[in-house]
């Protein structure tokens, strides 16, 4: 079995949560489901920012930072 490194965990966990959050926002129409989806999306974005920090990639951090801020502002607009 291949060991899971921190780099791999941050990358795949962040991307997976981002996709799950996006489906929660786009596919289910209720406000509660959208709030849960945006919350999961924000958590996934934060994991991807941490991945960018871990790999010392400012571009990854910037792109995912903007994505996380957009999801957080949409979550705040729903509340």
Report on this model:
It is a single chain. The protein has 79 residues and is mainly alpha-helical. The chain has one domain (6-78). Helices cover 85% and strands 0% of the residues. The protein contains three helices and no strands. It has helices at 6-27, 31-54, 58-78. Helix 1 runs antiparallel to helix 2 and helix 2 packs antiparallel against helix 3 (58-78). The model has no long low-confidence stretch (mean pLDDT 85).
In short:
The chain is mainly alpha-helical and 79 residues long. The chain has helices at residues 6-27, 31-54, 58-78.
What keyword list fits this structure?
79 residues, mainly alpha, flat
Query: Low-confidence segments, ≥5 residues, pLDDT <50?
Result: none
Largest sheet: none
The average pLDDT is 85
Which bin fits the share of residues in helices?
Answer: over 70%
Beta-strand percent range: under 5%
Overall structural domain count: 1
Compute the number of helices: 3
Q: Write down the overall geometry.
A: flat
Q: Which structural class do the helices and strands define?
A: mainly alpha
Radius of gyration over all CA atoms, rounded: 13 Å
SSE succession: HHH
Number of strands: 0
The N- to C-terminal Cα distance equals 44 Å
């Amino acid at each position: 079995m291949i060991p899971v490194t921190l780099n791999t965990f941050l990358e795949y966990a962040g991307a997976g949560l981002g996709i799950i959050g996006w489906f929660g926002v786009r596919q289910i129409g209720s406000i509660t489901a959208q709030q849960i989806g945006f919350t999961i999306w924000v958590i996934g974005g934060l994991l991807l920012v941490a991945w960018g920090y871990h790999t010392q990639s400012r571009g990854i951090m910037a792109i995912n930072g903007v994505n996380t801020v957009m999801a957080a502002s949409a979550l705040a607009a729903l509340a």
